[in-house]
Amino acid sequence: MTTSLTSAAPPPVETKRAAATPPKRPRSRTSRYAIWFVGPFVVLFVGMYVAPILFAIYKSMFRIQRDALGLGGTQEIFDPLFNYAYALGDSTFITSIGRVLLFGVVQVPVMLGLALGIALLIDSASARAKGFFRLSSFAPYAVPTVVSALMWSFLYSPTNNPFNQLLGLFGLDINFLSQDFALWAVANVVTWGWTGYNMIIIYAALQGVPGEVLEAAKLDGASPWRTAWSIKVPLVRPAILLTTIFSIIGSAQLYNEPFVLKQSTGAIDASYTPIMAAQASLQSANYPYAAAQSVLLAVGVAVLSVLFFRLTSRRSS
């Protein structure tokens, strides 16, 4: 009896702990090979995105100093806040920012409203030739920006303007490249080129709306308009937010269209938009000031995007 009890005694605590500790597994090949796939992206991202931003911030901390007569060379002096203070007091640069803000407040809602409306019409059950209308709506985006701006510059020409020929029937004659209409002429070119792009994004989101939800709304007697406004639009809200943020960023980067139209009118100067103003600083060899203008523009776009995202998130919650 004593021998059996002794043999049935529990093992020591150390043995239990050793048995409870799982053996170490060898490192997975997938985790090792993933570094070789992610590595090139990280290198390109740092080299093409992070490094230029850091260099622009570094460059903006210097100011250009010339001698009194302007006959000698120039030198860069470290002065971190000089260019930023000068940019915030530069009336030309501030006016260009205000012009782009006005452009975005008017043009972005109009463009996205058109994109949403076209997407809903093509997605409707009674629509026919959907492929044709998708392609025809997206076709302007396939035209390069410079080419489309050149095309519209000919259409805006007072001598070749087909719009004034139609408006002439009502006794109207509008110079679309005048000081009062130049900004909206640019907005029309941007809207024509980018509405189809945003429409495709929203239309793709509409394809993900569950058919059971639409069928239930039809059985409840909801009209097509009610179904579109109360069911489809809320369900594609993430796509609408995405296109809105893209459009805000695109408005801040406005350059090609006004630069091309500038050749046809005196209403658009070399500092018409913030990027054009920074480009004018580059042409005058004031690289630190151009870098400061670019950094301020980037910070402003980031702040606007975050505020818009926070505001829409609070409203939805």
- Main beta-sheet strand count, sense and barrel state: 2 strands, antiparallel
Q: Which radius of gyration do the C-alpha atoms yield?
A: 30 Å
Taking pLDDT < 50 over at least 5 consecutive residues as the criterion, the unreliable ranges are 1-8, 13-19
Shape: globular
Elements, N to C (H/E):
HHHEEHHHHHHHHHHHH
Helix percentage range:
over 70%
Task: Please tally the β strands and state the result.
Answer: 2
Count the helices. How many?
Answer: 15
Spatial strand arrangement across the major sheet:
1-2
> In angstroms, what separates the terminal alpha carbons?
73 Å
Question: What fraction strand?
Answer: under 5%
The average pLDDT is: 86
Helix/strand structural class: mainly alpha
Can you tell me about this structure?
The protein has 15 helices and two strands. It has 317 residues and is mainly alpha-helical. A two-stranded antiparallel ribbon has the order 1-2. Strand 1 (62-66) and strand 2 (74-78) form a beta hairpin. Helix 5 (91-123) runs parallel beside helix 9 (182-206). It is globular. The model is unreliable at 1-8 and 13-19 (pLDDT under 50).
Show the helix and strand layout.
Blueprint: H1 2-7, H2 13-20, H3 29-59, E1 62-66, E2 74-78, H4 82-88, H5 91-123, H6 130-142, H7 145-155, H8 162-167, H9 182-206, H10 211-219, H11 224-235, H12 237-252, H13 256-261, H14 274-283, H15 287-316
In short:
This protein is mainly α.
Which features characterize this protein?
single chain; 317 residues; mainly alpha; two-stranded antiparallel ribbon; disordered N terminus
